[in-house]
Design goal:
homodimer; eight-stranded mixed sheet; elongated
Chain lengths: 253, 253
């Protein structure tokens, strides 16, 4: 049985706790929580601690706290040569205190408070300094997901930027769609099948093959009609820039 | 039994033919095709015609051709007072020849050649000049989908722009994610669960509630790190503008 503890009580920590509770072959020993009430409904009272000196050594300590606190938290762990991994997409492995064995255990997904998620299909991006540590990370990861990838810190940076484009920025375009509907007394539900199909298409086609629309066709009549139609400055600027980017991208073929 | 004919042989026409073939209560009488070979596998030979003078009168003629040809096609229909509707998101109902009864029958979805789609959940946006014509459109629509909406020409313009944002532009952001993966020898599959969950979230939450990420948190450390990281001009410009739009949008709350 592999033993794991978690430092953190936020969104990612909570989703990891839920995943480990269902996992076989991994035992969740302790959760060090600054906000113990946030994880209390998920754990036995004895599993929750609030002080670093109460931590016991385990096979893996996962740090699931806000990016800017990771280095400081790792320095406070009262052990040496303990395997410690953080769960962040944008923090380097080297930011962890070097007194311990270092690793990264980054689940590439958007976690929403209160919305449970099927962890078994979430890619876990793994990195470690030493081969035997990588094996521990892999064993823990495979207990909660079917999808693991070796991703080094440099690649993880690219992946985190890519995630911002396909998640945060995509959601903002949904927001613009929703605003346009609201403005014209249309139900946002009208757009939902299109949103789902657009995502479904790139599960089997490449985004390049899946691209449609006036920009892809270089249909300047429709593009100009849309630009004349839009009043909001940001919407107009985004329409212009995204259209230009699609057209230039098509030329690269 | 309501009788329908289609003018057109492209993507939308083909998906409509497939939907009508499965429908009860509607009979597809003729398809007038400039490219008869494109629809030949879907129809009996007797259903396919290539000349306007071979058209027979039916309850509804649907024009599913490219936007710029709609007005001309409608003028060539050799009848008067025949109900004629086009299927375009961006053409006004008034562009149809006024010798016939006019309507719009706009399926709000992205159609991909060779990828069959469940038509029963596609919203059909309907418009007609006369009440009895609207009833015919509704009856035909309800034979192939569970989702119909009254949408006038002004609203349809807004909806078409919104569709460009949530479909074409979203797909382009998927493309950027894919490019970043490729550049760093990462599998695009890594991003797919995130893409699916991002779309799934707005089925139950509003995009405003679902928004996460560095821009939403106004996390300038991460934003600047990402901007420093990006080399491509379009990617940098889009990152900047989308971030600004998310931040300003947050201020509107």
């Amino acid at each position: 049985m592999i033993t794991v503890s978690i430092i953190g009580s936020g969104n990612v920590a909570q989703h990891l706790i839920l995943a480990f509770k269902k996992a076989e072959g991994v035992s969740l020993v302790q959760v060090l929580a600054r906000a113990p009430q946030a994880v209390a409904p998920l754990l036995e009272p004895a599993q929750i601690i609030t002080e670093y000196h109460d931590l016991v050594q385990v096979d893996l300590i996962l740090i699931a706290v806000t990016d800017t606190a990771i280095a400081d938290v790792s320095a406070q762990i009262p052990f040496e040569n303990q395997l410690v991994a953080h769960t962040s997409g944008s923090v380097s492995m080297a930011d962890l205190d070097s007194k311990n064995h270092r690793g990264v255990f980054y689940p590439l997904q958007t976690f929403t408070k209160g919305k449970e998620i099927d962890f078994t299909s979430i890619p876990l991006c793994l990195e470690a300094e030493q081969k035997e540590d990588y094996s521990v990370l892999t064993a823990v990861a495979k207990a909660i997901t079917t999808v693991t990838y070796p991703v080094n810190s440099e690649q993880r940076k690219a992946l985190h930027v890519a995630a911002v484009f396909v998640c945060n920025f995509v959601n903002h375009l949904y927001q613009i769609g929703s605003d346009l509907c609201e403005e014209h007394h249309l139900d946002f539900d009208l757009l939902k099948p299109l949103i789902q199909e657009t995502a479904a298409k790139v599960m089997t086609l490449s985004p390049r093959e899946a691209q449609t629309g006036p920009a892809r066709r270089q249909d300047s009549t429709t593009i100009n009609a849309h630009l004349n139609y839009l009043n909001d400055t940001h919407q107009k600027e985004l329409y212009t820039l995204l259209t230009k980017s699609i057209i230039d991208n098509g030329k690269k073929l």
